[in-house]
Amino acid sequence: MSNTSSITQFLLLAFADTRELQLLHFWLFLGIYLAALLGNGLIITAIACDHRLHTPMYFFLLNLSVLDLGCISTTVPKSMANSLWDTRAISYAGCAAQLFLYVFLMSAELYLLTIMAYDRYVAICQPLHYGTLLGSRACVLMTAVAWASGFLNSIFHTANTFSVPPCKGNAVDQFFCEIPQILKLSCSDTYLREVVLLVVSLSLAFVCFIFIVVSYVQIFRAVLRIPSEKGQHKAFSTCTPHLAVVSLFVSTGIFANMKPPSISTPSVDLVVSILYALVPPAVNPLIYSMRNKELKDALKNLFLEVVFQQK
To answer: For the chain, how many helices (H) and strands (E)?
Structure first.
């Protein structure tokens, strides 16, 4: 057992031992990171600048893009820097901050996706009450609750995870600091307390998931009652991006946390962690802009405005 008082840093998992593969990892992560920055940045700018997109659905989408940018910026730059400079180190405070921010942003994103499901439910099942139930004040309040809930959830988890210093070394089997990997280094009493919090958090996540499922059951029933096929397609097309984002978020999270132990190897764990930590923030902007004419038009107008201003 190592001397906990001497631990001032953690060692993150290295992607490769050879310099060539380390640089490959750097460029691969850089490409994904730039794609996420560009996609989410364009969505945020388009929604902020185009008054036609100042609606509840796009207000929530703007917040989702901010959260996605935060999530990928919390984990990727440090991993890229480590590969570029051939190191594995992250300071104790840096690890705690990374864990706190990641849990905060991921929790807030789950709550926001739940709110977005409610938005689609009201828009399709109760369209006459949409302006009343989802006024600007209600939207800001619900979004603030999502952010605040994620913040409180992260405070509890971070405080419990780091309340007792690591007693089993400082090597983290992950390319960023996350709760399960830090718990492996902590003493048993911290682990038991964290398990209780994890059960509570998973219960809240399950409630969010059930709420989303029930919302979409009601949405599908309402869409199927629309007499025209064109009307059905138009109504359902407004839900498709959100449903795809939720499916990606939930499927990667479930597979990462509930994969069979028989296939759990360091290589598999690394690939899975990339799937749930990097892919959603980079792919979500593409999902939302692919079949959204209003967003496409806003992005086109933004591009033309920038081009003509430069001329």
So the answer is: 12, 2
